[in-house]
Design goal:
By secondary structure, the chain is mostly helical. It is built from 6 helices and no strands.
Length: 160
């Protein structure tokens, strides 16, 4: 049997310490990379939102431009264009919440506002109309609106 001296124990401890340091460094750098990836995706999502926001501002100013995207038979009013813009803003807030960029408190505020709009405003009529506004949004957001907003709210009558 081989006897180990005190120096040998220190050498083994050093080696274990170096390996442990490498594992800890790797763990935290990987965590940081995941966070950076989410930050980059969020930045891209925000940039895309800025682009579509500019386009919908044009559509609000001139609703006839909507025919370029959807040639539906309807009176294309500023109200419809604004409704699309509002829904797009709600979708952006929803996606940021899904990515955990928006806090629970902020999301509660957004959720209340969405529910109020669907209860008190005409946005529900447009969502459920033959304009098919929902087809312009991703399936997760559409499912969220249908399950969490439309089904859990009812339009208030007599508001003018």
């Amino acid at each position: 049997m081989v006897e180990l001296g005190l120096v040998d124990y220190f050498v083994m401890g050093e080696a274990i310490g170096i390996v442990a340091t490498l594992f800890v460094s790797f763990y935290f750098s990987r965590k940081q990379m995941q966070k950076l990836s989410i930050d980059i995706e969020t930045k891209v999502l925000s940039d895309l939102n800025d682009k579509i926001s500019g386009l919908t501002h044009l559509a609000v100013e001139n609703p006839d431009l909507i025919r370029i995207l959807s040639n539906v038979e309807s009176d294309l009013t500023k109200e419809i264009a604004f409704t699309y813009h509002l829904l797009h803003t709600f979708a952006h807030a929803y996606h940021l919440y899904q990515r955990k960029v928006v806090s629970e408190n902020e999301w509660t505020g957004w959720l209340r506002m969405m529910k109020s709009c669907f209860e008190q405003g005409k946005i529900r009529e447009y969502w459920e109309s033959d304009l098919e506004l929902e087809k312009w949004f991703d399936p997760k957001f559409q499912e969220f609106i249908e399950n969490e907003i439309v089904r859990k709210t009812s339009p208030k009558q007599g508001l003018s």
